[in-house]
Amino acid sequence: MTPITTAQTTWNSAFPAHVAASAAAVAARNAKDIACGTYEGAIRPLVKRLQASSAVDGAEHAALGITVPDRSPTPVPIPTTRPVVKVDTSQRLQHTISFADETTPTSTRKPQGVSAAELWVKVDGPPPADATQLSFLATDTRTPYLATFDGADGGKPAHYMLRWINTKGQPGPWSETATATVGA
């Protein structure tokens, strides 16, 4: 019984010490978090003033360890990638048009600098030979887009071509033509 009694005595002193240390660590972390929030709340207005001041240059910003503001705007590039188009025809006289970037076809995020997709359509006849045969449908900032048709368009093919436009309204290259029949 001596080894068991010795082990129990060690346990009886070690366990409460552990519980007390754990509680002290939690209290110390909470105190640290509160102090950090107070410190950030006090320093943020000063940093904001320094960022806005034209008297503080980029080297001084860097020396202070704060973000160096970009005083000259970066030009927005013209989109270089194309949208990938999918058309859902499951509803009568409706097409649900989904689009994604060709470099990230499983993501709904638009490319950097792109504000929207322009959707163009040609209803009936063969696919368009060029963009002059298309009619503007919509500018959509978020996929999907719902296109509705009149009963007279039922059974006709709808040919879609999309392109990205940047924040300045400059268009990128056309997508491949996506064709779907309007359900009657």
Structure, explained:
The structure is a single chain. The chain is of the alpha+beta class and 184 residues long. The protein has two helices and eight strands. The chain has helices spanning 2-52, 58-64; strands spanning 83-88, 94-101, 114-123, 135-140, 145-148, 157-166, 171-174, 178-181. The strands form two sheets. Strands 3, 4, 6, 7 and 8 form a five-stranded antiparallel sheet that branches.
Write the layout of secondary structure elements.
Blueprint: H1 2-52, H2 58-64, E1 83-88, E2 94-101, E3 114-123, E4 135-140, E5 145-148, E6 157-166, E7 171-174, E8 178-181
Antiparallel strand pairs: 1-2, 2-5, 3-4, 3-6, 6-7, 6-8
What features would you highlight for this structure?
32% helix, 184 residues, five-stranded antiparallel sheet, Immunoglobulin-like, three-stranded antiparallel sheet, single chain, 2 domains, alpha+beta, 8 strands
